[in-house]
Write a structure and sequence with these properties.
globular, 14 helices, mainly alpha, single chain
């Protein structure tokens, strides 16, 4: 009965926690991003402090250095994006010409007239912005979040000793246990975030070299697009590859380049999944695939794209927490990737063994 009460209490916490996460996304998302980046920048700040630089100045320098790199990359990408937007009319004309040519070929093969809308502008009506107010509001909201995250990073890094002291005061009886949990959770977050940054850079470099070799005009923009969308597991790769292949198809005169692009992007994805990510990120987030998929879906529902990225290491922290919570170890095991295997002989499977085990237990009673 006590175990049932504990489980019910745990489920109630999950439900109310989901409500709080969804309703408080505007406040919680930048805080979580700040925590993640604070863990990622702490090695840089610690290295600067070794040269007797005050902590506040070391933190500011680390944030400024990273911000300069990010702003430089963003500036180059914006320039390429502006050029791409200017080329949209020309790309649209290419799309119309190729579509018309393929429709004529289809009519010849099928032997019937395929109806094609006379007003070509209807194809581009979906690109019009129908609600400018919502767009401006979303942009302002994103800029506000991006502007407040560096402040959170500074405060979290500056007061990290204060937070450690709080954990010690909060858990007098189990100080070692709490500090061990905080250390392991921090290692999961830091390893995942720094690892994914390196993976993103590697994917961007590989994609950029290929796009440059085949003559893609805005190779930096598309390489960054592929690498950033790769942070969204499963769906991100499919969406980014579709748009890049479509652009290559519309800007080249041969099917060879789109097919080659598909093959190279698929190869980079296989390389990233099977070699790069395991070597760079490692196995710190040891969560089974089913839990990862659920984390991505829940993260997208609660926090959008940020949630799809953040919830993967957060599910790893949740697993560590459950494994070290009395009475909730089974839920931690449910998230782990350690699948028990029962060796049986003949036609007996695991379920048959489990049923026999229970029946023998009943007979013994």
């Amino acid at each position: 009965m006590e175990k049932l009460k504990r489980t019910a209490f745990f489920l109630i916490i999950i439900v109310f926690g989901a409500i709080i996460l969804r309703e408080g996304a505007f406040i919680l998302v930048p805080v979580v991003w700040g925590i993640f980046f604070a863990f990622a920048l702490s090695p840089v700040s610690d290295w600067l402090e070794k040269f007797r630089i005050p902590r506040s100045l070391a933190i500011i320098l680390s944030i400024v250095l990273v911000s300069l790199v990010v702003f430089g990359i963003v500036y180059a990408l914006i320039n390429q994006m502006v050029g791409l937007i200017r080329d949209i009319p020309e790309i649209g004309e290419n799309f119309k010409d190729k579509l018309g040519k393929y429709m004529e070929q289809l009519n010849t093969i099928v032997g019937t007239q395929v109806i094609f809308p006379e007003n070509q502008n209807e194809l581009w009506s979906i690109l019009r912005v129908e609600n400018l107010n919502n767009t401006l509001f979303a942009t302002g909201k994103s800029l506000t979040l991006a502007g407040i995250i560096p402040l959170y990073i500074f405060l979290l890094m500056y007061y990290r000793d204060f937070f450690v002291a709080f954990l010690i005061r909060y858990s007098v009886k189990s100080k070692e246990r709490i500090l061990s949990w905080a250390k392991d959770s921090g290692r999961v977050i830091q390893s995942y975030l720094t690892g994914m940054i390196l993976v993103t850079l590697i994917v961007a470099i590989l994609s950029g070299i290929f796009f440059f070799l085949i003559g893609v005009k805005y190779f930096l923009l598309f390489a960054a697009f592929i690498a950033i969308m790769n942070l969204i597991p499963y769906a991100g790769v499919v969406v980014s590859s579709f748009f890049v292949i479509l652009y290559v198809f519309l800007t080249t005169d041969s099917f060879v380049y789109p097919l080659l692009t598909l093959g190279v992007l698929w190869s980079i994805q296989l390389l990233e999944n099977n070699i790069i990510t395991p070597l760079v990120v490692g196995s710190h987030v040891r969560v089974n695939a089913f839990a990862v998929i659920l984390a991505i879906l829940l993260g997208g529902w609660l926090w959008g794209i940020s949630g799809m990225v953040l919830f993967i290491p957060l599910i790893g922290v949740l697993k560590i927490t459950l494994e070290r919570s009395e009475g909730l170890e089974a839920f931690g095991f449910l998230l782990s990737d350690s699948v028990p295997v029962k060796k049986t002989s003949g036609s007996k499977n695991w379920f048959f063994w489990l049923g026999n085990k229970n029946s023998h237990a009943d007979k013994s009673k």
